Structures are given as C-alpha cells and as structure tokens.
UniProtKB/TrEMBL annotation:
InterPro entries hit by this protein: Sig_transdc_resp-reg_C-effctor (IPR016032), TPR-like_helical_dom_sf (IPR011990), Tscrpt_reg_LuxR_C (IPR000792), WalR-like (IPR039420), WH-like_DNA-bd_sf (IPR036388)
Protein name as it appears in the record: LuxR family transcriptional regulator
Pfam families given in the database record: GerE
Molecular function in Gene Ontology: DNA binding
GO-annotated biological processes: regulation of DNA-templated transcription
CDD domains the UniProt entry points to: LuxR_C_like
Highest taxon listed in the record's lineage: Bacteria
Keywords, in A-Z order: DNA-binding
Stretches assigned to the HTH luxR-type domain: 494-559
C-alpha cells in the first residue's frame, strides 16, 4: 500500500490510539512462524520481511522452499503456526507502533504495522483489532485492494471472537465492503446498526460517528460525538478529546453549522497539541480553513489550509488535504475566481479519494460551469446525479438542482431553468444552515437579473444577502450586494454600518437583534458568555449605538 492519506468520507473511523512498549529491534524482520508438524526433524526457519513494494513475505531457505513446493504439487496441506512465546508480544508491539504512527507519522507506515500485527497475532481478539485498524487505514488511504484484503481478514477473524465487539465490527466492516463495491443499498442497513451504538467504548463510538457521517446523518454524528467527548473528559485523555472533537467539528460542518464547527475545531486543535497528535491537529486546521472559506476570510483560509497541507503531504492525510484544497477552492469562488477554483478541484475530482470525491462535485460543477469548462461541468453533474440517487447525502438533491440550472444547455426553456432553481431552494434542509441556500438564491437572483426580471431578482437577492450575513459570509454577501445594485435596488449596509463588523460580530449582532440574550447567543454559537459580552461591546462601539433597541432598529433597516 502506498502512503496516500488515510481518510474516510467523513474521517476514517480509527480505533482509540493506545500507547504501548516500543517495537522490538528489527521489527521489520521479526522471527516468523515455525511449523512443528513438518515431517523433517528440524524446525522450518523463516523470517517475515517487508518488500520494497510494502508487501510482506515469508522468507525460507532453498531446501525448505523445495519441501513447500513439493507439498503444493502433491496436494499436501501446509499449516503455518505461530511459535510459542514472543510472537504475541511482537504482535502487540506492532499494533502499538501502528497507533503511535497514526498520531504523527506516515499512515502508510501505520498500515504496515497493523498488517504485521494481524499476521503475528494468534489470539483472535488481538488479530481482529489489528485487521480492523488496517482496514480503516486502507479505506482512508483510498486503496481499494488493500482495504478489501484487510476487511476479508478481519471478517474471517471475527468468526472466532465471541465478545460484544463482533456484532458492531461485523456490520461496520460489511458496510465498508458494500461501499467499496459501489452497492450503497447493501451498506445502509449495516451502517445504521453501527450508528445505533449503545456502547461507550471510545473505538465503538468513533465507528458509530463515522457510520452516521457516511449515511449523511450529521445530527446523529453530533450526538455520538458529544458522547465520545464526555467519555474522553471522564478519562482525562487529551488524545481521545481531540479525536471526539474531530468528529464533532466535521459533523457540525456537514450540518452547515459553521460557527459550532469552528469552535469545536479550535478546542480540538488545542487538545491535539497537548496530546502530541500532529495528524489530528492537521484535520482541525482543515476544518478551520473550511469555516474561514464560508466567512470569506482569505488570509485565515490560507493560513489554516497551509498548516493542514504541510502535515497532509508529509504524512499522507488524504481527507485532510482534500478538505484544505476544497477550502481554498471555495475561497477562490467567494472572491470571484472560478477558473482558479476549477483548476484546484480538477485533480481531486479525477484522482482523489473515492469517498471524498462526491462531496466536492457540487463545488467543482459550479466552478467548471462559471469558468466555461463545459465538458467538466457536464461530467460532474452526471456523477453528482448518481451520488444524489444513493441516498447517502441529504444535501445532494438541492445541490444537484442548483448545478443543473447553472449548466443548462443553451436553448433550454427558461421555465425549466427557473423550476430547477426553485427546486434547489426548496430542497435545502431547514437545519443545514443558511450558506448553501443563500448560494442557490444568489445564482437564481443573477439569472433572474439577466432575464430582465428585476423585481423578483431583488427579492431573491435580498434573501441571499440576509442568509450570507447571518452566517458571516462576507465576500459572498458582497457578491449579493453587487447584484442588488445592478438591479437598481438598495444594496444593504454600506461601510461604516453592519459591513464594518467582523463575521463573528455580525452573527452576534443579528442574534441580539432578534431578542436573544447573551446566554442564548453564547449557546447558539458555542461561545462563552464572557466572549459574547466582549464582542457585543465592540459591536456597540463600531456602530455607534447605545442599546439593544438601537441595535435591533439598525439591523432591521438593513435590507
């Protein structure tokens, strides 16, 4: 297996990462099994070695190789057994080494360590743990063949395990196997059972959160992530805290709750640094880059994405790298540079991780359409249509309708394009935040203006502007204002009014204007009450208002 990044559609469901003794000297050439049932008196000398291509080979003497060859021609069954003493300890050492590498090293090396542990382990439970870790890592890396091999080994071993892990692990592995063979209808039942986990063991909770995210059930993933976070806090484990917050941050981002995602990612980044887990820290940087790309803070996008990509490229973190590149592409779109966005995403869509690609398709289709790359946009729409039909992403239907409208062929009846835009706006999930709906409204408003329907265009563009302002999407809000000015209507707040606020201040101001208390604002944005108090004082100073009533009036007067 190469050293491509292991990452899941929504983050690889890696087991908890225990510490353990260092691997023994010469771990790459550990003593291999000895066959005590062989007809010769001497034991079979063998060494397990890692080859240049990363595979493992059992190396024997030429004489013993001839014996094995003769046994194969005669149909004799050859049994390879683990020698008494040492190999079980070596298996545990290799497993611990794999988890240590997962923290801050190349994930291709972690996969090799897990595979070695599975080969050495005689105890079925230990072998199952190792094979499952190898499957997770191969899945995350996007190596189908390696993942299928590890899943097969894990399922074979699971039959020998009688404890409670067997049921959830079996469903989890069968769900992944179904997705690998592109049969989502076979995966859904297995993954739903995994997501319904009642176990509070960290690795079980992480698998459940991953299953929920694969199913597109971000709310369930958030609930499971909170359970995992509580367990991590109870155990006072910063490594488990960082991992739980990784799932929480990603789930909130998938749900469109970008402020919460940002808050969880900041906390997770701090926990990952305390634990010394550079790879987990990189994923939190990527989520922070995604949040900044919504807000339009281009400098922060570049800073956070740069930090994520530095580790992703060094250690092979596929999803982390994809998220960081996606954030940079969304930043390109926000500043009106679809050519740059399409060029950045093209490689990820063509050769990226098979489970991350579908999530990038709406953004790529939009960028390709806006930059005149019609063949790319048509191909992306066709792939997105298949992805939406899988039922694994609740947001895909709305995004598909939007890009179908954007990529409508010349000569398409205006009524058909209008219907697709309206369908997109109606399909955006109510609980998925304002950003995606506002993007659909912005494109619809632009189309209406070009069709010389200024009154309806203004109404739609005002809705888009309000949506962007509610989620602090500054550059996107600027696009909506420019379109409003082009229709001849008022373009909303000018510099010196609400536009003078930071994205966080704008979110707080709009919530306060609805009558929310500081405590309610803090709960909504995952902030402390003290932080809200501080921001609100700055809002009052920036806007020159002296009361919440004056603030509400100013917000109400902004189109």
């Amino acid at each position: 297996m190469g050293r491509r990044a292991p990452e899941h559609p929504a983050r690889a469901a890696a087991p908890a990462r225990p510490t353990g003794p260092p691997p023994p000297a010469g771990a790459d050439a550990l003593p291999g099994p000895r066959d005590r049932d062989h007809r010769t008196d001497a034991p079979l000398p063998a060494t397990l070695r890692r080859l240049d291509d990363g595979s493992l080979a059992l190396v024997v003497t030429p004489a013993d190789a001839r014996l094995l060859d003769g046994a194969g021609r005669s149909g004799t069954t050859v049994t390879v057994r683990i020698a008494d003493g040492g190999n079980e300890d070596a298996a545990r050492a290799a497993l611990a080494r794999g988890h240590r590498i997962l923290a801050d090293g190349p994930l291709g090396d972690a996969y090799a360590a897990f595979t070695l542990a599975g080969a050495l382990a005689a105890e079925p439970g230990l072998a199952l743990t190792a094979h499952t870790a190898a499957a997770d890592t191969a899945w995350a890396a996007g190596d189908r063949a390696a993942c299928e091999s590890a899943i097969g080994a894990a399922l074979a071993t699971a039959r020998l395990v009688s404890d409670s892990r067997r049921s959830q692990l079996g469903d989890y592995l069968r769900g992944l196997a179904a997705l690998l063979r592109e049969a989502p209808e076979d995966a859904i039942g297995h993954l739903r059972r995994v997501a319904a986990c009642g176990d509070d063991a960290p690795d079980a909770l992480h698998r459940a959160a991953a299953a929920a995210l694969i199913l597109g059930d971000a709310d369930t993933a958030c609930r499971i992530g909170l359970r995992a976070l509580a367990v991590a806090h109870d155990r006072d484990r910063p490594d488990l805290t960082a991992t739980a917050l990784e799932y929480l941050a990603y789930a909130e981002m998938r749900a469109g709750r970008h402020a919460r995602a940002r808050a969880h990612a900041r906390d997770g980044l701090a926990a990952a640094r305390r634990a010394g887990h550079a790879n987990t820290a990189a994923h939190h940087h990527a989520v922070l880059a995604m949040s900044a790309s919504v807000e339009g803070d281009t400098a922060d996008v570049e800073t956070q994405a740069g930090a994520a990509l530095a580790t992703a490229r060094r250690c092979g973190l596929g999803q982390t790298g994809a998220l960081a590149e996606w954030a940079l592409a969304r930043s390109d779109l926000a500043r009106g540079a679809p050519d740059a966005a399409a060029a950045r995403l093209a490689g990820l869509v063509r050769q990226g991780h098979f489970a991350v690609r579908p999530l990038l398709l709406p953004c790529f289709a939009e960028a390709a359409a806006l930059s005149g790359r019609e063949p790319d946009s048509r191909t992306a729409v066709e792939e997105l249509r298949r992805w939406a039909a899988s039922g694994l992403d609740p947001a895909a239907g709305a995004q598909l309708a939007r890009v179908e409208a954007l990529t409508a062929a010349p000569g398409t009846a205006p009524e058909a394009v209008d219907a697709r835009f309206r369908r997109a706006i109606s399909l955006h999930p109510n609980g998925a935040g304002d950003f995606e709906r506002a993007r659909s409204q912005l494109h619809y408003g632009k189309w209406l203006r070009r069709r010389r329907r200024p009154l309806l265009a203004r109404a739609v563009l005002r809705d888009a502007l309000h949506g962007f302002e509610r989620c602090g999407a500054v550059l996107w809000a600027d696009q909506a204002r420019q379109e409003l000015r082009a229709t001849g209507g008022p373009s909303g707040a000018e510099p010196g009014a609400l536009a003078a606020l930071t994205p966080q201040q704008l979110r707080i101001a709009r919530l306060v204007a609805t009558g929310a208390t500081n405590r309610e604002v803090a709960r909504s944005l995952s902030l402390s009450v003290r932080t809200v108090d501080h921001h609100l004082r700055n809002v009052f100073a920036a806007l020159g208002v002296r009361s919440r009533v004056e603030l509400a009036r100013l917000v109400a007067e902004t189109p």
